[in-house]
Every structure is written in structure tokens, then in C-alpha cells.
């Protein structure tokens, strides 16, 4: 019993979208059709690159930093999009950069909010902004995209570096008391950890779900669970990944943790054909996830609905990347008792007394980050 829903206004009754499609039967069959060009001959999922990869800045060829000029459009259930939303909220940039949600997907791609920016230009799908930017654009019009509100063109869809831009060149527009999520002295270590988080966790879940060979899916799951276990140990005496410092890396890890039990784990189970560990099987990671969940800025009401924590007005819950709903919650689409699941995230998780150092034996340890300097040349 599934329905397609509008998440652009997730706090009111769900708006049904005609002819919308979801991501398939839990094994990713519909999605696999769309991403066939991203599956290697060996059955691995190899994510496409971002074709509009400009950076914000004050130099020649960079996107000018102008408040109230840009809009981030994406799917709420999309982790690459939610990491932008989180950073914008934590820094206060949500007051000078607009945020808009797509409403679902058809064969033509992500559906725009009919009352959003697309109305100004006569656009109905996210890909219309991409084609306005490049008439020969091909491939998937990905979430999120940053749109110039004056021209209706995409200025960047490079979600990997976008949060770093919000945290640095946009700093003149940060709210008072905003956290420094990308401090100078930690940047080399943050960059290396972020790469590991992306490969093994953020994108690691997709490597499991979208692989076309059982042994490939199992190997990706083994890596994911090993990384969870390693981070669990790291967080035993550290409040955040870098000890006392809340950083961009915490945002990137949280994007997957918040969606894991409803969006990823059920589909991993179906793909590998056996049980998969829960977040709460890693006690320090689970406490850390709850700490961030309870930290203002890490999740908003739209996301609580989109990630299946809270029901919509009709009593249905989101699952499968947040734009499919069901009233028949079972372990096939996330925790069967969603109310108890939500309440578990609200259990006390005060980690403020942890005093562990920012130093760690992971990526960049012992000065190894210096070996990666060639990447900036």
C-alpha cells in the first residue's frame, strides 16, 4: 500500500503526485534501470561525477558570493541535499540562501514545487534548470542543485565541496556564534576523513543496494560495517569525530546515520539476503547519532517526516528515500514501530563530558595528510 507524496510541504497533508515513480521494490530494480550507466561490467556501482562543479569564491571564474541570490533545490530524503540544509541552518545561511524541495520523481526526473522557483521560468522538473544552463546536458539531473534565482541556471551541483564553500567564503554572512565547521588547522584531516566517509559510508550504502552481484554487495556491506565499528571505537572518548570540535565531517556522517534504519538498511537486507546490524549495535556511534539528532540545526520538521520519524497527516510514514509512503509499517520498510523508533532517538545522549583529543589514527594521522598535497597542485 504505497503512495507518492509531496515533501515540499511535508508538515501538511501529503499531496499525491500522478505518474510519479519510486525507487523500486526494495531491491532497487526501478532505480537500476535509471542508473544502468553507473554499473560497471563487474557489477559495482560507480557514481557519476557532477558536471557543473564550479566553486563559490571571490576569484576569477568562481561563483560570486551574493546573499539572497541563490536557491538550493533537492530531495529532502537525499543525503547530499540534507548535508547542505544542515550546514545552512548551523551557520545561519538559511537566512540568505533559499531552500526548496522537489516533490518526487517521474520519468522526466525530479518534480519541482509548482509554487517554487520553477514557476518564474515555466519549469516543471529540475532538469529544466540544467538544460537552461546547458542545452546539451545529458545524464541525471542530480539533487541538490544551486540555482541562480535571476537567470534560472544551475551554478553548481558539486555537493562534495559545496558545504566547504558555505563554511568558508560565505563566512561573512554566518550568524553570530556559528560553529567553525572547517577550521584551518584541521582541514587536511577533515578532507581525508570526508573521502573515507564518502567511499565507505555515504556512498557505501549505495554500493550495497545497487550492485548487481551478490559478492560485490556483501563486500561493500563488510566495509560499511567495519567502518561503523572503527568509528564506534573512535567515539568512545570523543564527543565528535575530531574530539571537542564539531566539523563538516560530523555533518557528512550524520546524513547517512539519520536515514540508515528507514532508507538504507531494509534495502541492504533485501540485497544481501540476511540480517544486517542496526545503528544501536554500535553503542558509541548510536549515542553520537542521538546527540547530533538532538542538536538544533541537524534536523527539521520536514526531514522528520521525510525520513520516516513522524507520520504525515493521513497517518502514513515515508520510506525508500523519503518520497514513498506506507501505512503498513513493517521491517521490510524500516522499524515496524515508528513511534518507538522516533522516541529512541530522543533518549538522553549527553556526550559533553567526553574530552578526547582531535588526533586519531585514521586518515591523515602522523602527518600523512602532507602526502596528499599534490592534489592541490
TrEMBL record:
Keywords: Transferase. One of its GO terms (molecular function) is glutathione transferase activity. It comes from the Bacteria. GO terms for cellular component: cytoplasm. Transmembrane segments: none annotated. Gene3D superfamilies: 1.20.1050.10, Glutaredoxin (3.40.30.10). PROSITE patterns: GST_CTER. SUPFAM superfamilies: GST C-terminal domain-like. Signal peptide: none annotated. Residues 183-309 form the GST C-terminal domain. The keyword Hydrolase does not apply. Coiled coil: none annotated. This is Glutathione S-transferase.
